Amino acid sequence: MTTYRASTADTEILELDGVELAIERRGPTGAPALLLLAGGAQSMDWWTPEFCDLLGAGQLQVIRYDHRDTGQSSASPPGRPDYTGDDLADDPLRILDALGIDEAHLVGMSMGGGIAQNIAVRNRERVRSLTLVETSPAGGDHGELPPPSRAVAATWEEPEPEIDWTDENRVIDYRVDVERPFAGPLGLDEPRVRALATLEVRRSRDMASSMMNHFVAGSGTAVDPAEIRVPTLVLHSADDPMFPLPHGEALARVIPGARLVRLAGVGHEIPPPAVWDVVLPQLHRHVLGA
Q1: What are phi and psi of 12, to 5 degrees?
Q2: Residue range of the domain that includes 236
Q3: How sure is the predictor about 117, in pLDDT bands with cuts at 50, 70 and 90?
Q4: Domain for residue 44, yes or no?
């Protein structure tokens, strides 16, 4: 049995090509690496330490990081991101290069799932396995897929509220409210989401940029997931209001050998504790088996 040296979980700031990216590594040093990619406007905080430690299970080095404009990573002025989707897709590779990691397991949620697809197609030699959570095909023609729910679509049509970004309590309230339309059928887990939002707001450089810039940045290069040739697991909720279940079914259908696991009772979110009893064994089977 392979043994690994234990590591700490301190946040590191990597300066890469003029950009600062905040990362955290948990688990044994030298173990196979698993990189977590959060969704749009999400910092690493939504991948909680408890989830990371259970996911690593003493056998994986789990790495989470802040996208640009989230957490402690570099921030652009609100509404004026100085990067494109291709830059966001290159950042995980920059992180792996800086850490001396040739290949990693990738777990991406929503926008992070699109980034993971991009890497798996354009840099497949860097990917040991792929897990796509609540996401959609990043390109290609895979038929007409259902739109977001009315509640989610309304968030794009309504004018943005006036926010005093210096008022911490108001910003936390706003961050919680943003998550409401994306919740599952049981509604928002308010105490949990508020705790995560509070942590994110208090450690972020610029929440105005965080909540805005990913959605106005130039789009990245589209890739066809049908070209993915790495072991792939698709985790998708039957009640995702952003990307309804057919989006996950399309991914599982077009990626050769992909396996779909349907989740119940959750929305468009990083898997919450209520489904860890399903998600973690599936991830361990997929990642450790790969």
Answers
A1: -115, 145
A2: 11-147+205-289
A3: very high
A4: yes
| SS3 per residue for 139-201 | CCCCCCCCCCCHHHHHHHHCCCCCCCCCCHHHHHHHHHHHHHHHCCCCCCCHHHHHHHHHHHH
- Six-digit token pair at 230? 């790495």
For residue 271, the domain's CATH number is 3.40.50.1820
How far is residue 261's CA from residue 252's CA, in Å, rounded to a whole number? 9
Sheet holding 104-109, edge to edge: 11-16, 19-26, 61-65, 33-37, 104-109, 127-133, 232-237, 259-263
CB 203 within 8 A of CB 231: no
pLDDT tens, residue by residue, 165-183: 999 999 999 999 999 999 9
Which tens digit of pLDDT belongs to each residue from 54-87?
999 999 999 999 999 999 999 999 999 999 999 9
Provide the whole-model pTM: 0.95
Residue whose C-alpha is closest to residue 42's, from 14, 73, 67: 67
Mean pLDDT of the chain: 94
Tokens found for residue 153:
């679509």
